[in-house]
Amino acid sequence: MATFKEFRNNVKPNWCPGCGDFSIQAAIQRAAANVGLEPEQLAVISGIGCSGRISGYINAYGLHGIHGRALPIAQGVKLANRELTVIASGGDGDGFAIGMGHTVHAIRRNVNLTYIVMDNQIYGLTKGQTSPRSAEGFKTKSTPEGSIESVLSPLEIALSAGATFVAQSFSSDLKQLTALIEAGIKHEGFSLINVFSPCVTFNKVNTYDWFKENIVNLDGEAGEGYDPSNRLAAMTKIMETNGLVTGLIYQDTKRRSYENLITGFKQEGLANQDIKISREDFAKL
Ligand code: SF4
Ligand code: MG
C-alpha cells in the first residue's frame, strides 16, 4: 500500500513561502494514502491560478486545465473511468467566478468526485485583485476605495443547489483537512470542500491569525449536538457564523451519485473493463 510520500514527485512547488496551498497539497497526499489508494488510482484535475499548479505537484494522473473548467474535465474523467478516484481543485476565483456555472451544475449533477477549493479571498496569480470571496471594503489595486460588492457564500449556494457533501476547513488544520478529504473521497457523490488557504503575499486581511481568531470549528465545542444530516441546521450554521464554520457541515448519504442512477451504467458489481458502452449510449450521457 502506498504511503503519502509515494504521492510526492520531484517537482518543487513555486508557491510563495508560507502560502496555505502547501498544506492542502500535503493533506491530499495523506488522505490518498490513508484511504489505500495507489498513485495510478488517483487523478487530480486543476484549473488556473496559483492553486491550479497543484496537479503538477502530486504523483498521480493529473491535468492542469483552463480557467474555471476543472470540473467539466474532472466529471468527464470520472465518467470515462469510474475506477479512478478523481479530485478537482482550484481557487476561489477559478471556481466561484469564471467557473461558477460549472460549480453549481456539478453540485446538482452529483458525479462521484471531490472538489477542493483553495479559498484565499483574492486573485493571487495575477498579483492581488478582489475576488468574489473578498470582503466588502477590501482594498486592492482593482478596488482602491474598497470592494462595494457583497461577498459570495459558496456553502449557502452549494446547499441550495442540492449538494450531498459540504465541508470547510483551514489549511493550518492538517488533521481536520486530511480527515475531510478522506470522507469526501469515500462519499458517494460530489463532495465540496472549501479550504481557507491564506495568500501571504497579497491578502493582508485574511491572515493565519485572522482565521485562528474567527473560525468556528465544528470539531470543537461549537459542534456539540450538531447533526450534519440536517440541511436546515447546516444552512443556519453557515449563516450564523458568517460562513466561517469549519468541519463536516452537511452530508446526505441517501442520494445516489449520477453514475449510479444511469440505467445500464451502474457501478455495483461491474469491473470497469466489463462495461461496454456503445457510441449511442455514450452520446446519451
Ligand atoms: Fe500563495 Fe498568494 Fe503566493 Fe499565490 S501569490 S503562491 S496564493 S501566497
Ligand atoms: Mg483566489
TrEMBL record:
Its EC number is 1.2.7.3. Keywords: Iron, Iron-sulfur, Magnesium, Metal-binding, Oxidoreductase, Thiamine pyrophosphate. GO terms for molecular function: 2-oxoglutarate synthase activity; iron-sulfur cluster binding; metal ion binding; thiamine pyrophosphate binding. The keyword Transcription does not apply. It is an enzyme of class 1 (oxidoreductase). It comes from Paenibacillus pasadenensis. GO terms for biological process: cellular respiration. InterPro entries: 2-oxoacid:Fd_oxidoreductase, OFOB, PFO_beta_C, THDP-binding, TPP_enzyme_TPP-bd. This is 2-oxoglutarate oxidoreductase, beta subunit. Residues 199-266 form the Pyruvate ferredoxin oxidoreductase beta subunit C-terminal domain. Residues 48-195 form the Thiamine pyrophosphate enzyme TPP-binding domain. Its cofactor is [4Fe-4S] cluster; Mg(2+); thiamine diphosphate. Coiled coil: none annotated. It comes from the Bacteria. PANTHER family: 2-OXOGLUTARATE OXIDOREDUCTASE SUBUNIT KORB, 2-OXOGLUTARATE OXIDOREDUCTASE SUBUNIT KORB-RELATED. Pfam families: PFO_beta_C, TPP_enzyme_C. The keyword Magnesium applies.
